[in-house]
Amino acid sequence: MARRRLVYEGKAKILYEGPEPGTYVQYFKDDATAFNAEKFDVIDGKGVLNNRISEHIMTALTGIGIPNHFIRRINMREQLIRACEIIPLEVVVRNVAAGSLSKRLGIDEGTALPRPIIEFYYKDDKLGDPMVTEEHIVAFNWAAQQDIDDIISLALRVNDFLSGLFLGVGIKLVDFKVETGRIWDGDFQRIILADEISPDSCRLWDVKTGQKLDKDVFRRDLGSLTDAYSEVARRLGILPEG
Ligand code: C5P
Fold first, then answer.
1. pLDDT below 50 — which residues of the chain?
2. Among 29, 35, 50, 231, which residue carries the largest CB count within 10 Å?
3. DSSP E strands: which ranges in 74-170?
4. pLDDT in the model for residue 239
5. Cα three-residue angle 236-39-26, rounded to 5 degrees
6. Which of 36, 92, 220 to mutate to test the pocket of ligand 1 (most atoms within 8 A of CB)?
7. Whether residue 159 has its Cβ less than 6 Å from ligand 1
């Protein structure tokens, strides 16, 4: 069988040309990286778990009218997605202080934030994804002010929904990152969610024990990453295969 044309290879995923125009195939690798790829490992089964978990979350978001690029899962490691023009920003939403926020501002990990905080980072590996403000985003033409307003409202809707979804299975959504892209209906532009939503891109803590069920297990050498991700999948009602 002819191999599909590779469009882009990232740290955890590969994009191939899709079967129809306007589609891509998103392949989930087992590669795990942290600290801008200074730490690297291959973790058997991570890609399969993230493919399933991201499918589950994107499908649920579609169900409540939050537009995203997911079309359908193709197999254990691949999903068909709608092509979009990626906006070069990582959008982080935080409910509880952790990670870089705790480090930068000296706020203890686990401190509840008075309201969700949104941060933007410019997607550029060479620069280490620096944090930017709305001023930078507009000045450098990465997105218009209206786009930023749309991205913020999308991110907050995702936060509300996912916080409830995870709380229902005993997990606190501490923070997460999303990426967004543009699609065009004629002259009309819409912003949709892209990339993935998985334990690679969220901080997920067990409500009762505080146990970390996310990529911090890898970043901080806290045990088996696949055990943690499998536990998230199990609680979300996702069967081991399918
Ligand atoms: O490292 P930091 O505390 O800024 O991360 C905030 C959230 O964004 C975490 O859930 C982390 O997993 C996610 N993130 C990500 N990809 C990055 C940076 C952060 O998924 N490149």
1. 242
2. 50
3. 78-82, 85-86, 89-96, 112-122, 131-132
4. 72
5. 50
6. 92
7. no
User: Helices 46-63 and 145-167 sit at what angle, rounded to 10 degrees?
Assistant: 110
Q: Tokens for 135?
A: 């001023």
Q: Find out whether the beta carbon of 100 lies less than 6 Å from any atom of ligand 1.
A: yes
Pairing of strands 89-96, 171-185: antiparallel
Q: Does 195 contact ligand 1 (Cβ within 6 A)?
A: no
Strands 78-82 and 23-28: antiparallel
Ligand 1 lined by 92 (C-beta under 6 Å): yes
Q: Is the CB of 201 under 6 A from ligand 1?
A: yes
Count CB atoms within 10 A of the CB of residue 98: 22
Model pLDDT, residue 2: 58
179 close to 171: Cβ distance less than 8 angstroms: no
Q: Whose structure tokens read 């218009």?
A: 144
Determine the distance from the C-alpha atom of residue 150 to the mean position of all C-alpha atoms in its chain, rounded to a whole number: 18
Candidates 208, 196, 137; CA nearest to 231 is 208
Which of 179, 201, 204, 225 is the pocket-test mutation for ligand 1 (most atoms within 8 Å of CB)?
201
pLDDT digits (tens, 9 = 90+) for 176-186: 999 999 999 89
For ligand 1, the distance from its centroid to the CA atom of residue 92, given in whole angstroms, is: 7
* 63, 153, 161, 171 from 207: Cα distances, Å: 26, 26, 17, 5
Tell me the pLDDT tens digit for each residue of 132-150: 999 999 999 999 999 999 9
